[in-house]
Amino acid sequence: MGRLTGGDPSLLRRINSAVVLHALRGADFATLTEVTRVTGLSRPTVEGVVEGLIDAGLVVETAAEEGAARRQGRPARRFRFRAEAGHLLGLEIGPHRVAAVLSDLDGRVLGTTAKDVDETAPADERIERLRTAVADLLRRGGIARSSLRAVGVGSPGIVEADGTVRLGTALPEWTGLPLGERLRRSFKCPVLVENDANTAAVAEHWKGAATEVDDMVFVLAGLSPGAGALIGGRLHRGYGGAAGEIGALHLLGRDVTPETLLSTTDEPLHPLDEQAVAEVFAHAREGDERARQAVERFIQRLVHDVAALVLALDPELVVVGGWAAGLDGVLEPLRRELARYCLRPPRVALSVLGEAAVATGALRLALDHVEEQLFAVEGTVTARR
Amino acid sequence: MGRLTGGDPSLLRRINSAVVLHALRGADFATLTEVTRVTGLSRPTVEGVVEGLIDAGLVVETAAEEGAARRQGRPARRFRFRAEAGHLLGLEIGPHRVAAVLSDLDGRVLGTTAKDVDETAPADERIERLRTAVADLLRRGGIARSSLRAVGVGSPGIVEADGTVRLGTALPEWTGLPLGERLRRSFKCPVLVENDANTAAVAEHWKGAATEVDDMVFVLAGLSPGAGALIGGRLHRGYGGAAGEIGALHLLGRDVTPETLLSTTDEPLHPLDEQAVAEVFAHAREGDERARQAVERFIQRLVHDVAALVLALDPELVVVGGWAAGLDGVLEPLRRELARYCLRPPRVALSVLGEAAVATGALRLALDHVEEQLFAVEGTVTARR
Question: Would you indicate the residue range of the signal peptide (chains A, B) (predicted)?
Fold first, then answer.
């Protein structure tokens, strides 16, 4: 239980600073008069806060010519938020590749990179590939490593709060890996590690298929699908970070492995990779009966997994991503079957961001972290209005 | 984005009133000096607020003798929150019975009642039974209907925000029933209708098996189980109020009806009710092989449903309630199988509240509603500290 009156002067200063920064960030340029009007703060308070923000490198006075309109007489001083005062990284670690995206403090993307990595590569090699990708990206952008304010990482597996991979069967040597700790050696800023389906969900909500939707599930469809969910616009991690790990549902009463499921012969499909599966789908389209049955089995399993999520969570929208989303003929059966089995069927859409989703969501988490530091004060400012 | 300084005087009055009421409610009796100390408000402010609360009937000055300690000289005036200033009802509507629980504004239970109702009873008859139960309960407690401040209701089915049953196959004539509107005719105070598994989850969190747990799932285990989930201590209803309706999962790829599932003959089990099912369980314990197989099938289905929820949500605790919870031998297999299939198995516990869970949770929802009105001001007071 708190109170509104009185209070801690340094807390008030931080709140006022956050309010002014928020106002400046929302406008391209602003005069002190405009900031005073928008924030409701007094002119002396605004002046003091803006001076402090200039000292911190977060705000700069712009030349009057940069402003949109000049009036008669002495032009009013104009200020803007320095989005270039710091930088953020979003990283993806996957079975076949690592990727990185670089942005400024407004989340504006300045560059991206991706590097192939062998699916059998040990953990050290995979992390080294990622480090190389980051170094390349920073060099190309001319960005000093010291300018980084936060790094987000999307990785397969169940990830604990400190960035340790509790369970990660998709990548060699991944279970138990202290991924956060390992990556923190490369960066002086905070490193936030999150499950890849979770970051993808965040990304589609930020700038993908779910920008208007606060209750959504992202299905990273593959051989053993994972999922991320936003509830009320917030990531739902679960008590132990394992929410959405629906892949294990198959194990219940249905012993068929994906290799058997997708086989068109009497032998399990081997190797079980995206190319092999795409071929099965292609054969099915050409009329091959055994391929058609294999595809049917695959889709039924996907439907079952997604239905379990939908029945448990009742989202407004399901976004399907991952490589299976690229296969022709996944979306329509999914829509049809969900409508059949769910009491309140959700909308179903394909990922807009495609393979950029995981790194983009990781970037958003880094941005959230920085915004929380810069713009929020103990929930007071953000919780109100 | 809001601001801390300045502000609306009537808002400040409401905040101060809520703060004082909260302080008084937390103590049995308090002096103005104590309230001043606890709240940090000025003495004149506290005096003004307390006078206003006395006028509103929510606070009363107690005789000095009621206070714990008397000092030398003129004793300080003492005040207390009048929990008897209003009353709340929690109602349950089920297939076989209706039930009601009555409390004061502190949620202290003053009385309960339950009445049998036939599972084939039409909606009008079922609602009439509930009205009779409420009338009996109020009369026995000597409580005027006008004293009710809020009524919570737990009902099977997917319930919309206005209390209309969107889908309710468990009760005759339930789908489409404007249950909230119908019940509002009997009460002048707010009537809040919620899915029964949801209210049961709230109840176990309030005073049952999950008092220490904010991420939990309540499984209302029966022939077609429903579930309610709390995430971060808050009820997760889903976008369309259909979260947790996992019963439909069976339909996917497994066409066996509960009647067939639990049959020990070549004919479906009929009638399919609690007694018939209990007999099957009893026969299984006595060594009947077909009964054993039926029980096995039943438990496997329950495990599958619960696993789907657990994989989707990753709760800390699963509480099993509903009539199936009363059957010997449900809990252990559930625990064992969840540990086998879930990446991070939750704890599993039996409902503590048993058949009181649904009405108790409905009462808690009514209490939440009243507390929000009395003690919270636009999230400001509760969101801080």
Answer: none
